[in-house]
Structure formats: structure tokens, C-alpha cells
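$ run holo --ligand "NAP" --emit C-alpha cells
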Amino acid sequence: MSKETILVTGAGGQLGTKVKEAFEQNGTFNMVYTDVDDLDITMRPQVDAMLERHKPQIVINCSAYTAVDNAEKERDSALKTNQKGSLVLAEKCKKHSAFLIHISTDYVFDGEGFMPYEETHPTRPVNFYGQTKVLGEEAILQNYNEAVIIRTAWLYSEFGKNFVTTMLRLGAEREQLGVIDDQVGTPTYAGDLADAILAFAKNYVTSNSFKRGIYHFTNEGACSWYDFALKIQQLANNRVQINPIPTTDYPTPAKRPHYSILNKRKIKDQLQIEIPHWEESLIKCIELISARQ
Ligand SMILES: NC(=O)c1ccc[n+]([C@@H]2O[C@H](COP(=O)([O-])OP(=O)(O)OC[C@H]3O[C@@H](n4cnc5c(N)ncnc54)[C@H](OP(=O)(O)O)[C@@H]3O)[C@@H](O)[C@H]2O)c1
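-- output --
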């Protein structure tokens, strides 16, 4: 029996790399990995030709413009990839009957909440990147029903530049570090998100029983960036002193939401999955980083 084909965009990025690992290990699907050099999601003819050639049953969109602070200045680039790219994928997946799995962010919310955000909570981004991600979500929801949008937050992995790899580098270089303690959220290991994406793909080709639309996925638990930094340094045996600071002491071009905790009941119910606590996954990630050194 031939395997179903899945095409991944942005496969060289942080999430794309962990998606590749998870799907290779699983071995159920015929995988096609692409990145911006061979498949720019904003280019209609390219996307059309790629889907025509490979005829995937599922497209996983790991590509995005993700430079949150730069997006305040590079507005056209951010908008092009995150809005137009999402629209093109929705249109072409519809044309070629491919199910679309798209990734979005907690930055669609204003962070003024105090209860974990449900999928139906009104969006109100506080920065331009968040605006482009809302527009990307809308482009998909308005044009193609056969899709899920997974909002995630505080994503990290052993690859590339993220909070964990940056903290490990600074922790080894510095004696003291100031880290924000008045923004709370949930660190999310990209490997766990990749497993959730795999669970969607497996469900789609077997029982196909999940609802379409928006889902929230992060690890379990919650903390501030300060708590997260402390745990990273502790696990890495770094002696650096971490000092809690308010957001006002660390100004950035893009404003960040103060409260980013997402309610994950829907994804757990629909896919019957358990999600690891953020500390458990952080231990796993730091062990993997240490093993490579
Ligand atoms: N990182 C986080 O903390 C975080 C938090 C919440 C949600 N998310 C969402 O999670 C998803 C994955 O993020 P990530 O951290 O894996 O991002 P990433 O590491 O920046 O990866 C994005 C990938 O997309 C590629 N790309 C950029 N523009 C493209 C285009 N027009 N066509 C095709 N590929 C393009 C990038 O290539 P280049 O590197 O060459 O540009 C890169 O390989 C994104 O949707 C992001 O919005 C991330």
C-alpha cells in the first residue's frame, strides 16, 4: 500500500527541523521537505507546481516571518510571508485537495487576560508581527475549511537562536543577567509541538475525527521569562546570577503581551493526547544540547 504524502514548508527552520525528526522517526508517511529557496510560499505559480508535482494529502506550514522586533520596520516582508503566504497556501491546498496544518502564535492576543486563552477569545495583537499572524489566520479561515491552525508560544529547541540557546550562551559568558519577570506564558518545546502535528496527521489519515479550525498548543504549566531562565541555568549548572527585571527595564521595538497562557483543552480532547510539563521537556532539550557538545 502506498504511503500518504506530506509536504512541509519552512523545513529548515526551528519547528521544521523538529517536524522532520518526528515524522522520519514515525516513518508512516512519504515526506517532502521544502524551504524558502525551493518553495517560497508567497509565489503562487511555485506553490501550484509543487503541489501538482507531489500531490500531498497534507501540507504542514512551518514557514513564517518570525523576527518579532524587525517586523515593526520590515512591515512589507512580514505581511507578505505571514498574510499573503498563508492565503496562497489556503488557495492552492484547496485547489489540490490537500489538508493544511498551519502554525500561529499567542501574540494574536493582547495579554490583558488573566485566565488561559481559549481559541474563541477575540484577537487583539499588540505588535505588527501579531497583526500579520492574525491576518494569516483569517486568510486561511475565510478561504479553506480543510485546515487547522495551531497557535503556540515561547517556542524553543536545541536548534537555532531561541531563548534557551541564548540563555545557555549568556549564562556561560556573564556573571549576572537581568531577565523579565512580569510576562508570563508557557515555554514550548518544538519537539512536543511536532508530536502534536504528527497526531493531527495520523488522525487525518485514519479516523479523521477532529474538528477543523483553531487549536492552542503549548507545554503544560506556566512561568515568567525569569523563572524559565533560572531553570535553564540550573539545569546547565551555570553559576550566573539571574536578576528579575520589569518589562520597562528591557525596551524592545515590538511590545509583548504580559499574559500569554493558552488553554489546551480542545487539542487534548480532540486528539486524545497528553502534553508534557514545560520543565520535563526543558530537561530533555538541555540533555540533547549537552550530548552534542
Ligand atoms: N519562535 C517562537 O517563539 C514562536 C512562538 C509562537 C509561534 N511561532 C510560530 O511557529 C512557526 C514556526 O516558527 P519557527 O520558530 O520554526 O520559525 P523559524 O525558525 O524562523 O523558521 C521559519 C522558516 O520559514 C522560512 N521562510 C521564511 N519566509 C518564507 C517564505 N516566504 N516561504 C517559505 N519559507 C519561508 C525561513 O527561512 P529563512 O530562515 O531563510 O528566512 C525558516 O526556514 C511560525 O509560524 C511562527 O510564527 C513561533
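-- notes --
The longest helix spans residues 75-95.
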